[in-house]
Hints:
The complex is a heterodimer.
Chain A: H1 4-30, H2 40-47, H3 53-66, H4 72-82, H5 88-97, H6 103-110, H7 115-148, H8 157-176, H9 187-215, H10 218-229, H11 239-254, H12 256-264, H13 269-288, H14 290-300, H15 310-317, H16 321-362, H17 372-399, H18 405-417, H19 420-428, H20 434-453, H21 465-470, E1 478-479, E2 482-483, H22 491-513, H23 518-528, H24 546-557, H25 559-572, H26 584-598, H27 600-610, H28 618-625, H29 627-693, H30 699-731, E3 738-742, H31 743-755, E4 764-766, E5 775-779, H32 780-796, E6 804-811, E7 815-822, H33 829-832, H34 854-865, E8 868-871, E9 879-885, H35 888-893
Parallel strand pairs in A: 4-6
Antiparallel strand pairs in A: 1-2, 3-5, 6-7, 7-9, 8-9
Helix pairs in contact in A: 1-9, 1-16, 2-9, 2-13, 3-14, 3-16, 4-11, 4-13, 6-7, 7-8, 7-16, 7-17, 7-18, 7-20, 8-16, 8-17, 9-13, 9-14, 9-16, 10-14, 11-12, 11-18, 12-16, 14-15, 15-16, 16-17, 18-20, 18-22, 20-22, 23-28, 24-25, 24-26, 26-27, 29-30, 30-34, 31-32, 32-34
Chain B: H1 2-36, H2 40-44, H3 52-83
Amino acid sequence: MLTFNIVAGICLAYVAILFGVAALAEQWAQKNKMTFLKSPIVYTLSISVYCTAWTFYGAVGSAARNGLEFLAIYVGPTLVFVGWWWLLRKLVRIGRTQRITSIADLISSRYGKSNLLAVVVTLLAVIGTTPYIALQLQSLTLSFAVFTENNANAPSPAITALLIAIGLAAFTVVFGTRNLDANERHHGVVTAIALEAVVKLIALLAVGIFVVWFVADGPKDILQNAEEIMPKDTGVFNSRWVTLTFLSATAIICLPRMFQVVVVENDAESHLATASWAFPLYLFLMCLFVVPIAVVGQEILPEGSNPDLFVLTVPLAMGQESIAALAFLGGFSSATSMVIVAAIALSTMVSNHIVLPLWLYRTHARNPESDDVRSILLRSRRISIAGILALGYFYYRFTGGTSALASIGLIAFLGIAQVLPALFFGLFWKNASRSGALAGILVGFTIWAYTLFLPSFGDSFLLSKDTIENGLFGLSALRPQALLGVEIEDPLVHAVFWSMCLNLFAFVSVSLFTSPKPLENLQALEFTNVFGRTSQRHMPSQITTSDDLFILAQRILGRTEAGRLFEAKAKEQGKPSGLPDPTSEFIITLEREFAGSVGAATAHAMVGQISGRDTVSVEELIAVADETAQVMEYSARLEKQSKELAATAKQLRRANNKLTKLSQQKDDFLSQVSHELRTPMTSIRSFSAILMNDGEIDRKQFAHFSSIINDESQRLTRILDDILDLSFLESGKVKLNLENRNLGKLIEQSITASQTAFDTKEIKVNIPTAFQKITLFTDADRLAQVFINLITNAIKYNDKDVPVIDFSVAETVKALTVTISDNGPGVSEADQEIIFEKFSKLSSGASSSGVGLGLSICAEIMRNLGGDVVFTPSKTGAMFTVTIPRTSKSRDAR
Amino acid sequence: MSEDTSFDNVDKRNRSNRKKREIALILPIIGTFLLLTPIVKVFTKDDGNSSLITTLLFIFGVWALLIAAAYFLSRALAPEIREK
């Protein structure tokens, strides 16, 4: 027979195991053996802190009383987790980037690090959680009472509850306030919670399996009986069902303890991916046997038995004490894990948002000693934990276990759900403002208290019976359970409808009619854009010094941690020793680190205090003021880039075409060269063969043949010289012999040189006297080569009896233009384009000894000299214009 | 040619990632539709008598399907998280 003493013994042994596991986990964490502690399974199991004693015992009771209604409490979280990609992932990302410590911190941080909001949310959380803790104490004492029915020596429920509360407070203080950084995981607590999660699942499954296969004759039997025994109304898909699903979905995000395990204790976003299916699976398994237990319990237990305790009493009634003990441990685990996590979450909020700001306010002027922030925080957290449990205990004593278990839970759900609009819209709506959030929460909270929380005490607390029945001041429109005369049968549905609607309305309308402060804008951007481009924050590193920052960091983070942080930063800044520079980036990092310990609002205030900067800098303002501008700039940049890309592609295509053409030209050139070389070579070879083989050749023929060979050799040499000259010029490696030279003389020399080739012809050349006055600073020999070439062409291709060549000159500041025109046949229009090409043979077919390199060489020479030579179309004959640049020297030489 | 195929691949990958994210959005909507609306009456043929068993089986069935879908979805989306 399980007596109270045995049960108490089991409990103590179990608690000892939990202490051991938590201590071991902390040790592992310190030694960095984290692989197991950081696994997504531990994370998922810790989320199951959602399943409290209310779930463990109350679900069966609810099923017996209200049919399938209890399932709604699990459907909500399932939907939220299945849709993790859209909401939870964003929450977790924000929690990590902003170093969020609690739900109050999140709301405060989002709305401009407002401490007022943090205080409001903290109070709301405390008011909403206290009944919940009371509920756990009640279910624990009820389950203890099962074993003390026949025992006169057992302590009274009040004493049991007190002892449990003290034990829980001790555990939470030991493992929950070990380190200050709420952002660091409480490995000990989380591991212990995970273990408890396993125990409660196994316990419920064990009872379920026992009930289905050992008490009843399998699932079929249960289902047959269920039709008769269970309530006729399934309780599904009505307004209460939708309301409960909504509340439970809200609870999984907004309840302080859920926020603690889901967001704050999250180690990696990938864990969330696992939890997205594993946590719904856990809930699924927890619910699997609820209906069978409810059915069998009603079947075998005497009428009037408390269905809330079927999980315990059914195995006991069947004489299965070991299963009953396991079930008891499951319930014990559910209750304790909830209380521990809730106490940690609430104590963090209370100490960060209420105690610390008050303390800072009081000690504003004096310069406190190092480490004092840490000690005050730790102390206040410990006291808060004790205080919260005491509150829960007194609430339990005060309400005296009057209400059914589940209804307190739902009331608490709705209380904390008032945070939802501010939270949800804060993540997606940039213009949601602090005033809006505050208005929404306060309105929602007031309506919740008036329509649901206060009436839940009956007429024993604040509201009189008359007020509840006839409304405040006798106004029927203000009846707490029928506002504006809207009669909704279920007070919970009524309260959810009015509180959420008016909350949302107040939040949205106040947000629309107020303009947020710069810091709010900044934080709104950081939150809504957490996956996008992060805005670079600037903070002028003004009057603050590294010493001040270091002292502050020591006070908040502790000596070793602060030392480590500053050392790492100094190294990053390239300083071998000493403190890092107080750059704006460093100050922002520090503020984030502090936020991980004391919350965003306090951290901001503290850093602002010592850096003399409470407001947002101009740079920040500019960065935030117009996000549209940023977006526009971004898209403009993209457009520019794509244009640049298109331009580059075009250039590349052009270059490619040019390369192809050049390669083609090279091939053409080679074939032309071989062709040109081949003709003289052939005649040289054949005539030399004749001379070699024909011994009887006469003197005259011999002279003729050898002169041909000589001529052809000379021509060959000339071609090769030209080719060499051209390639030399084209390569740009020509060394110019720059000197001062009179232009007139230069041209006269060129004419003389040209005439030698045409002794027979009479040539008339007109040179204006102006030429004699012009002195050029240039490579005279190369320039002469150009003139010789042009003059030679003018004579060579001239069909008149007396070739006439006219020179003229035009001067500008930068260049000198010499025009050479003749009275020859000119150049046909088709040929004008190609006369400067290599080996260009003109269509006019004028006989010539040249190979068509002369003008190419001219063009190359002029290019090398920095000028050019072009063909100018004219009516009579050919006209070439040579442009010679005037260097400073040539101007001086005048 | 090779550039074209690699562009195609990137495009395909982007499209499939987008599809996965869209499924992630649709999944809770489908769940809400099946579990919060009277659509259940279509499946349970509520003829006035107690439909507790069919309703129970329907809810657990949808629940199990949601869990299975979430399992495959989380595996499909996990690489995207790890990349970041």
